[in-house]
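Researcher: Quick one. two chains, 743 residues in total.
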Amino acid sequence: MAMRDETRMLLESMNRLFEDKSTKHVIDRAETGAFADDLWRAVAETGVPLAALPESAGGADAEWSDLFAVLRVAGRFSAPIPLAETMLAGWVGASAGLELSDGPMTVGPVRGGDRLSIERDGNGWVLSGKASRLPYAGIATKTILIADGPDGEMAVALDRPGGADIAPGKNIANEPRDTLSFTRVRLDADAVGPLGQGVSRGALYRRGALARATMMSGALERAMDLAVGYARERVQFGRPISKFQAVQQNLAVLAGQTAAAVAAANIGIQALGKVDAERELFLIGVAKTRVGEAATLACEIAHQVHGAIGFTKEYALQLSTRRLWSWREEFGSDPEWAARVGSYACANGADGLWEMLTAAS
Amino acid sequence: MATPVFRFDPVELPPEALKMRVEVREFIKEHEHLMGFSKADFNRDFSRAMGRRGWIGMTWPKRYGGQERTAFERFVLIEEMLAAGAPLSAHYTGDRQSGPNILRFGTEEQKMFFCPKIAAGELSFCIGMSEPNSGSDVAGTRTRAVKIDGGYRINGSKLWTSNAHRADYCILFCKMAGDGKEETDRHAGATQFLLDLKTPGVEIRPVLNLLGEHHFNEIFLTDVFVPDNRLLGKEGNGWNQLTSELSFERSAPDRFLVLFQMLREMVRMAGPTPDKGTAAALGKLIAQLATLRGMSLSIAGMLQDGYDPNNESAVVKDLGTRYEQDIPVVARQLFPTEPELEAIDTYVSMIARSTMNAPRFSIQGGTREILRGIIARGLGLR
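Model:
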């Protein structure tokens, strides 16, 4: 099915932007702890981070499928900015009518076991609990959290770390993952709002998992591109190593896993907004499970093809593989999601398995 | 990006395909007694019944017995039939590759003669490709055709020919014996013929597989006469025709749905509330299957739009056979049992059958190594 022209143009221009601005130099610098301001500003100027919001809320009513396609491009170029987090923070915050920022934002909780709660305190609220390993929380201009309130889940908007104890951390790609702890932190009334239709902690976890799966599919494309390019150039025994069948067979497996990852992420993306929460869980589970499996196999091959050079900080392959090894664990690992997929199928029953697989989207 | 990325564009099934699914499920219900993992897979009555519904060659032009339906409707038909374990063998080769091959390269007379009969489920085809000394290396064929008055005289032999003992016709791949060039130039002289298996000089002998079943055969050809009007395409163009035929062969969803019923039995054995490890092992297989299905659907989209999915088909077959070979491996870890072919317990006989069948998945229709070679070529490495 042909891609819509607007989508194609968007992806081409975002590809150019990331290629120009998300260079190895920029990523290396970001990994030392300096935020990639120039890259962020260039991406923010396109309007992409908040494009999914309704026009009334400063967005462009963009299709989520287009925005996820942009995340794949961001993943391809290891973009060291909280693009997915800002998109999701905007989605949660706008649904609750909270004030947003046009700077980088973050969103949480990102871990299944974390608990945040709010209770009334005069005109305002108090927030308690912990949000572990929030991406870029140290630099985010807004932090949007979902907390348990007296009448169910509510959205909370915090400026900067907003009275939290912050324990800085990072993943193995040196992306900030900061833990925020709140002990009866006072919030104004307008910093809290009820979640909109279809927005919940579960829905955030699902979209977060799909965002990581989609970024991973892009990172896999990059790792494959590097491996194929390197194999063609590297000469050993008098010929490019791409001429050896053993290397060709490995690269063919890498290409197959990459193609499967892109296809699996698309299965999740196609489901967004079209199915109920349970089925969305299943289809996004397919995506995170399959992409995680592909990442494990593909990283191994991409490194094997590169030999020692791929194991250096100097060479770019590690920018992709360290992200793949980080992202495959975030918003639920592939074994964790596989168990959800399996449980969903078993609850559905053996005789419903085929219908479950073939139901329209 | 320097590397060509294989395209698997997401596809949503159009309404006519969803309607098709309802019709096929009703049909399957009516024929339930013929469906199943261990039932005979070659059943001419069933093929005729499908022919009467217009479900063989359904994408072909009406003039040649087809229904001019979409690739998506055919995709749904095939996936439903395969998942149910329907006996498709009597018509499937004709439907999937011989018919399309004839439509692409055949004469008007051949199209009119063969295609309506295939579509009716009346004519069964087999594939005369492999030989004792020419397996993956198809171009190494030693079967030779000599031009004689009114036709061709063919000598040689074919091996691993599935269902040759039950089929009516074979598309025979061989080389023209000529100036000797065919002995050195690998693709020179390659030619395909439409061989009536009742022709004098054709002898078919069974080769039992490791399950002890008669599925494939050896075909001996001794001074076999094929008339001029049963040459398919052009003399010497056989290699191109074969490449196109193999692309049809590999693009179907039958490369990952053969063991669907076994997966279903595994879900049944796990029960409604499995422990986390069991759920994760099954979930991993289900995620693989759902992804393969999505990729296969993209290929149907490419076929519908007139693209040749040669590389993409190789990718899906390579991944699909890996997934299918993993099923009995995961099964024996989750639900251990001694395999027994004749067991009354469905699962026990399934694990016996699937364990013994698994090796063939990554051999038939192009070995794993050949497929990965095709993918590597698609990446520009060879």
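Chain A has a mean pLDDT of 96.
Researcher: Thanks, that's what I needed.
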